[in-house]
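Follow-up to my post from last week.
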Amino acid sequence: MSGPHLRDGDPRSGPHGEDAPAPAATAAAVPVQASAVGDRPSAEDRFAIGRLAATVERLRGEVRAAHAAAEGRALVELAKGVIVERLGCGPAQAARQLAELADQAGLSQLELAADIINQAARDRVAEAAGDFLRTAAGEPGRAAGADASVGVRLRTAESAALSADDTQSVAESLLAHALEPLGAVAVAIWTTGPDASLSLRGHAGFGADEADRWHHVPPGVTTAARQALTGRRTVWYPSLAAAGIPSIGRTRHPDGGRVVVPAGTGGRIHGVLEICWARPLDPQPQAVERQLEALAELCAHTLEALPAQAVPTRPLAPGGDGPLELAELADGLYDPVLVLTPHLDEEGRLADFRIRHANAHFQDPAGRPRSAVDGALLLEAYPATAGGSDLFEQIERVYATGEPFRSRRTRLTALVDQVPLSSFADISISRHGDSVFLIWRIEDESARLASLLQHAQRLGRVGAFEEDVLTGEITWNGQLFDLFGRQKTEPPVSLRELAAHVHPDDADVIRRFLHSVLHQRRAGSTSFRLLRRDGVTRHIRVIAEPALGADDRLQAVRGAYQDISAQHWTEVALTATRDRLVATEEEAEERNRLTLQLQHAIMPPAKPPLDAPGLDVAVRYRPAETESLVGGDWYDAVVLPSKKVLLCVGDVAGHGVEAATGMVVLRNALRGLAVTGAGPAQLLSWLNSVAHHLTAHVTATAVCGIYDPETRTLRWARAGHLPPVLVRESEAADLPLLRGLLLGALADAEYEETELRLEPGDTVLMYTDGLVERRDTSVHDSVAQLLATARLPADGLERRLDLLLSRSKSDTDDDTCLIGVQVT
Amino acid sequence: MSEQEPNLNVDVTIRDTGTAVLSLGGELDMETAQLLDDRLAEQLRQGRARLVLDLSSLGFMDSSGLNVLIRAVHKARALGGDLYLAAPTSPVRRILEITGVTTTIPPHDGVAEALAAAGGGAR
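User reply:
Got it. Predicted complex:
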């Protein structure tokens, strides 16, 4: 069972939570006692609060158990217990002390008992009493009678409430001892059900018939009590009729005032205390409000302590293993589910939620593994839930009120390496027992993929189109309208109209391109200068492929426009690809030269300037000797906004312009996606989607690493690619063959990721198989040879790469990319 | 046309109405990938979607060859069948491992095992 807690457990505990000093009157009680006990040293005054509080609690339990006949006697016994604890004397002596002290202080024993308990407990009831006292009189000693009566009243109510074995008795006791003195005529205690319904658990002053009529208030019915529940705050109605809100006893006291107070502990509202006056209620002093809140808290502890079967709010949580059962339930669901339990701070206030379980289908919006989230505090795992989105607040509300919350398309923001990553999800939050069930359904898989591709397309500034040749119907994605500088309400530009939108010098290029696609039915690509109506000129590449029907007739043209204006290399690539169509009609030699030019334009042979502290980066690109074999190898090394370094080598299957084009798409997409801050495994998974959906029939292999200069750690993953090589002092070894399918083979692929902590002087090499592939030797032996070369001493990173390239034994005349990083 | 390509031999054995075994010999690379692609397409056209590739005599495979296998898996699965790899030599097995293909198309030790996995063909 859970006894009363002598702590300030209200989530909105307000001004009196942290620095409430002992009220003046109760503080005064200490010297009175101390001076009266001449034979005890003053050191005894420095009692251990904790021990005392525990004793008080134990004594209260005994009081409850004994069902003390007289409430006053229970108080006196409680006070005697405090004296026994403090003075280390026996009960008989304590009784004598109490009598003596009361006599000296001019109080009744009961009044003094209430004071002593107040002083010992220092809880809400004590504060309310002290508060009242401070406002009632400037000098504590003067108004002793009045103060004492408040203290006694509250303590008596408490004692009675605690010894009552049902909520009904609590209600009666509250009315008799604490509320009638305030002029109230009736009281109701409501509990909240799991469905946010309200049940009348105890009442006094309303009459049995009225209580019967109001024994249950279904969810969604707005009553006075519900206002306290949903608003999570005390609500005052000077007149119920004037407020126009229904509630119990309204017929008998239509104009009477009402107060509804949420009864909560540790961030959870267990019920509502509703107090009824017969006449309109004038504004009450704050002290009265405090008293009512103290009584509501008392109710909350009582409701919380009710046996489980009497409180239908915990169908799934009989005892402590509720979260376990919920975890099993969660594992049976196909949506990602988090089971949360409240995490209270030292004051007993709700501070956060602990992620007790992330189910099997849990998917972190930021792509982190489940283990990174399971067991963490919610705000630590998702700090952004408290900020931009009000998700945390919603969880808090659901936990407090039990009212479930559902919302479509809520933006979830996760911080990954300080980079916010947003995704949309349908959210469902509900309370079960002491746990909160948080379900998020990241938009369904195809929608997610579509939005992902859109993301990739936006980052790569790619806009997709499809044009039905027969019906003339054109579909543009949203990005394409932006690219063309057109409103989404305007009609798209058809391929046949395209020439009218381009620079006059490029009109011929467009015509030839369209001829090739529409008449020769060849997939093609060309580049041109788009003249937008807003006067902006953009360099655009268009890629298009004809789609033939069953009768081999041209049905549609699909493709994409890509804005390639932004970077310098694209300017050069433009030259290469623009000439491509011309080249196909000319000699193959020329075409190959252009492919090589494209390759060079994208990956300059010179080392890219890289501002990565503590890291040297060197790269080599060696094209195949046979120019027609120049292909889709790429490397990339770039410092991300998070100051981490993206390192990558990749290899698009095949050769020639198609492979090179696929390479451009993947390299750009990876760069763009890496800015999101996601880890290498997630990046490869996205890149796989891009390879599978964005480019036709392309597979590629890649190894991707994210190096963090601060921690000198390299996180990496691979997609069908040879793992990197680590050179440490005179030793060289290839890193493990992590699980990871080549890109583009399946619509969805998952990648294994691992972390490597580097030491100063360490070198990591990433390379494409042009460096090792041999027909007469197994890859295993070729890699062994590479490792042998890597072990040779080298005068610096650049030299090492030269050495590796020159000793490469490849005989397949493939192009080769090699990237080396050395920790300085 | 590509039939006279000397570096790759493809022997087709039809096991039943839905199953064929294609035995590959030589090297599967950029030059020869199209040949295998054509032969696989032929089988699929004739309604045989359970395709067993005997790789015991294939000494080399590059990414072009791999692409043919991946495309064939998709096509075969779309027709309710599948592609089964049997007895890859160690260089080919290594390529399958590095590219992660073994996780989606686990190779079988021999043709008999592959046919058993294919179901209909073994009986």
